[in-house]
User: Which sequence fits this backbone?
């Protein structure tokens, strides 16, 4: 018998928490398998699934037996994703560049009759660090970063809003970044103009989407994965990082528990709300 995670009886959750605390789940995988058993499979659409966090999200939802519409720019070059879809028939690879309005609308048309429980706006680029320093400011890089990170999530959310509204879970999630926060220390605030602007931009877009889609019952979530070891951005940060597996697991946990209280707010990977 399957339950939606939101419907798991409280006693059952308490029991698993107790077993977990007694270390009876010998490995994280065992706990993950248990979560998969309790999770009634829905449908998730993920952007930027070819690698990094998006690939890992596709994998973890595939294991949970969700129908995964794993979108990427170039399926023919996304070997790992294609292999994943061969292993898990519940993974469908679709081509979608989030800056290509024609491709987005064509895919939305193809899936017009499909309810999509969760949309994850994951695709993102950092843009060359050097080209977004104050003494460089390359305009084309600015436009490219804004197109992928800011316009992309808005257009994809708009195109699939009816699919989300027709589903049971009704969730739109966008991956943001702490670099888009206005409240960092002055030292942490230097450089990365375009990337910061793109993530601050997608934050306000998500709040606006939340207001526009409230009457449809759609929850809009904003998640900061912290620093994840995907090679993203190519900055020389050598401090602690989450693995893509950990980041995806934290994001799935966030999605499962997303509520009107945690929607339209920037939530860190550890579950703590972040300042804008
Ligand atoms: N890693 C971090 O430390 C970190 C921290 C904070 C936030 N984030 C956010 O997390 C998200 C995922 O990052 P990641 O670390 O997994 O990065 P990644 O490993 O570089 O993966 C980025 C993904 O986005 C895809 N993508 C890029 N441009 C696209 C476009 N126009 N249309 C569709 N897909 C496109 C890439 O596809 P291709 O393979 O075709 O290039 C790739 O699949 C991003 O939104 C990023 O801003 C990451």
Assistant:
């Amino acid at each position: 018998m399957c339950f939606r995670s939101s419907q798991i009886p409280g006693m059952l959750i308490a029991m698993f928490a107790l077993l977990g605390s007694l270390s009876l789940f010998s490995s994280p995988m065992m706990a993950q398998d248990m979560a998969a058993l309790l999770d009634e499979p829905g449908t998730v659409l993920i952007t930027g699934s070819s690698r990094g966090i998006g690939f890992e999200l596709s994998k973890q939802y595939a294991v949970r037996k969700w129908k995964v519409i794993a979108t990427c720019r170039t399926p023919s070059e996304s070997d790992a994703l294609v292999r994943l879809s061969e292993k898990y028939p519940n993974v469908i690879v679709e081509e979608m560049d989030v800056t290509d309005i024609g491709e987005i609308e064509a895919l939305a048309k193809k899936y017009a009759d499909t309810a999509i429980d969760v949309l994850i706006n994951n695709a993102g680029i950092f843009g060359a660090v050097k080209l977004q320093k104050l003494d460089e400011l390359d305009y084309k890089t600015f436009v490219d970063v804004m197109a992928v990170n800011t316009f992309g999530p808005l257009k994809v959310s708009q195109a699939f809003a009816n699919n989300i509204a027709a589903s049971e879970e009704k969730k739109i999630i966008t991956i943001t970044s702490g670099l888009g926060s206005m409240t960092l220390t002055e030292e942490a605030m230097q450089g990365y103009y375009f990337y910061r602007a793109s993530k601050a931009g997608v934050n306000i877009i998500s709040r606006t989407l939340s207001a526009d889609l409230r009457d449809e019952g759609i929850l809009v979530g904003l998640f900061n994965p912290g620093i994840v070891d995907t090679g993203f951005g190519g900055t020389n940060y050598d401090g602690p990082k989450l693995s893509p597996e950990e980041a995806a697991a934290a994001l799935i946990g966030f999605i499962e528990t997303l509520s009107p209280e945690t929607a339209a707010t920037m939530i860190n990977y550890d579950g703590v709300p972040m300042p804008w």
In short: The helical segments are 10-21, 28-38, 52-63, 79-87, 101-110, 139-165, 193-213, 244-257.
